[in-house]
Automatic annotation (TrEMBL):
Belongs to the TRAFAC class translation factor GTPase superfamily. Classic translation factor GTPase family. PrfC subfamily. It comes from the Bacteria. It comes from Qipengyuania marisflavi. NCBIfam families: prfC (TIGR00503), PRK00741.1 (NF001964), small_GTP (TIGR00231). Keywords: Cytoplasm, GTP-binding, Nucleotide-binding, Protein biosynthesis. It is found in: Cytoplasm. PROSITE patterns: G_TR_1, G_TR_2. Its main location: cytoplasm. This is Peptide chain release factor 3. InterPro entries: EF-G-like_DII, EFG_III/V, G_TR_CS, P-loop_NTPase, PrfC, RF3_C, RF3_dom_3_sf, Small_GTP-bd. Residues 3-259 form the Tr-type G domain.
Length: 507
């Protein structure tokens, strides 16, 4: 049965409170028993989803974590994505694996550039969005201004489901329109401790505003929400535990169950008997003690059973999956069965890669998982030249994860690293040392961007004959043009109209 699965991502700008909200949702689902800020002290405060060394040092999420929990008969698969724009590629691929998203907005800042970018990715895939306006217990912008900004900037109908009674120093709680009850702050920490005032009489000023917000915006419409045309808006404070219960109940009640997935011209329904899925992420060294390598598969259809044989499209021959994993933040357990919508981890040693389709019959290919042309290109310089082999292994692992892209020039021995954002370079150097014991630094390369070359073999051979110095191969062996400037790309496109210079490569 697939209808009790909810697979969703949390998207936001950095510092909007996404990691705290993730933690509180896990607490609600019983996946963790103590919030990170309760257990930890000072600089050690980090949610369980941020497990990588650089994430702990910088206080940011740089990989997409997967967490599964159950609540009242619903299985929730939560995918926590990097909020930092430098990791947009990983986030984009993660959003191919979800059926809905929660958009977290800081009440003081509203829609920020990265929020808007991530929303546009959701819109491309018609991913329905629930909006959570966070930090309403602090001073923030007027509620109507926030609601109108969401509606105007994202071209969405907004339907408030709650209303904050005051903000900042005047914060008195949150009114739930569905029940008419107010959740009020309690105790010295001013948290919501689980009691609601059902007979509350709102002060006149707030009563008028709350009524105006309820009648002035569209009513919630399930079809409009699931089509991506309307967003229900919830208000709260993840840190103080306001609005979290209502949010998780909304996901259970309204968020779509597993949706059909595109496979070329075919669309694969979750009701299909055959087990099918696709790899949207690969993560090496989640457990540094075991040097493990996990491929994350979004199951699209069928009932998976441990020990089943599935055929990866990149391999062409079946593999038995003996140790599939379900994730509970850093904890994991063996999955005996999994249904459409579930995310399972498959331990492997380089067999599975991002974009691979897994299926019983090997007759379909899921589409839509792209690589993007890098915007920063660097050379890697080893401190110890005898560690070339270890470096190659590390770069292969990290490029499979999507942290970086690696290009091997046709002429010359220095490999070129390509990334979308600067922070990825810091992650690369940090992980080379921490996980592979390889000390290296990066230096400027003469190239500004890269394009994948496509065309007839004869035209490609001709181009290669005259441009070998600017050509490289990616890790799949595909030909890549390394350009010194965007002008270079335009010039070569005009000169070679029979070739396509592509900024994306779809697996």
């Amino acid at each position: 049965m697939t209808s009790n699965r909810r697979t969703f991502a949390i998207i936001s700008h950095p510092d909007a409170g996404k990691t705290t909200l993730t933690e509180k949702l896990l607490l609600q689902g019983g996946a963790i028993h103590l919030a990170g800020e309760v257990k930890a002290r000072g600089a050690a405060r980090r949610a369980r989803s941020d497990w990588m060394k650089i994430e702990q040092q910088r206080g940011i999420s740089v990989t997409s974590s997967v967490m599964t929990f159950e609540r009242e008969g619903i299985t929730f698969n939560l995918l926590d994505t990097p909020g930092h724009e430098d990791f947009s590629e990983d986030t984009y691929r993660t959003l191919t694996a979800v059926d809905s998203a929660i958009m977290v907005i800081d009440a003081a800042k509203g829609i920020e550039p990265q929020t808007r970018k991530l929303f546009e990715v959701c819109r491309l895939r018609n991913v329905p969005i629930i909006t959570f306006v966070n930090k309403v217990d602090r001073e923030g912008r007027p509620i109507f201004e926030l609601l109108d900004e969401i509606a105007d900037m994202l071209a969405l109908d907004v339907s408030p489901q709650m209303f904050p009674v005051g903000m900042g120093g005047q914060f008195e709680g949150i009114l739930d329109y569905a029940t008419g009850a107010i959740a009020r702050p309690e105790g010295p920490s001013k948290e919501f401790l689980g009691t609601r005032d059902a007979d509350a009489v709102l002060p006149e000023q707030f009563a008028e505003e709350a009524e105006l917000a309820q009648i002035g915006y569209p009513e919630f419409d399930l079809e409009a929400y699931r089509n991506g045309d309307l967003t229900p808006v919830y208000f709260g404070s993840a840190l103080k535990n306001f609005g979290v219960t209502e949010l998780i109940e909304a996901i259970a009640k309204y968020a779509p169950p597993p949706r059909p997935q595109p496979a070329g011209e075919e669309v694969i329904s979750p009701d299909r008997d055959e087990v099918t899925g696709f790899i949207f992420k690969v993560q090496a060294n989640m457990d540094p003690n075991h040097r493990d390598r996990i491929a994350f598969m979004r199951q699209v259809s069928g009932t998976f059973k441990r020990g089943m044989k599935l055929t990866p499209s990149g391999l062409g021959k079946p593999i038995a999956i003996h140790s599939p994993i379900l994730f509970f933040a850093q904890d994991r357990e063996l999955a005996d069965t999994a249904e459409a919508g579930d995310i399972i981890g498959i331990p492997n040693h380089g067999t599975l890669r991002v974009g691979d389709t897994l299926s019983e019959k090997n007759q379909i290919r899921f589409t839509g998982l792209p690589n993007f042309a890098p915007e920063i290109l660097r050379r890697v310089v080893l401190a110890d030249p005898t560690k070339t082999k270890q470096l190659r292994k590390a770069l292969d692992d990290l490029s499979e994860e999507g942290v970086i892209q690696v290009f091997y020039p046709e002429i010359g021995g220095q490999w070129i690293i390509g990334v979308v954002g600067q922070l990825q370079l810091e992650v690369l150097v940090s992980r080379l040392e921490a996980e592979y014991k390889v000390a290296a630094h990066l230096e400027a390369s003469p190239y500004a961007t890269a394009r994948w070359l496509k065309g007839e073999e004869k035209a490609l051979d001709e181009f290669e004959k005259f441009n070998r110095a600017t050509l490289a191969r990616d890790r799949d062996g595909d030909l890549v043009f390394l350009a010194k400037s965007p002008w270079d790309v335009t010039y070569q496109q005009e000169k070679n109209p029979e070739l396509a210079f592509s900024a994306t490569k779809e697996r």
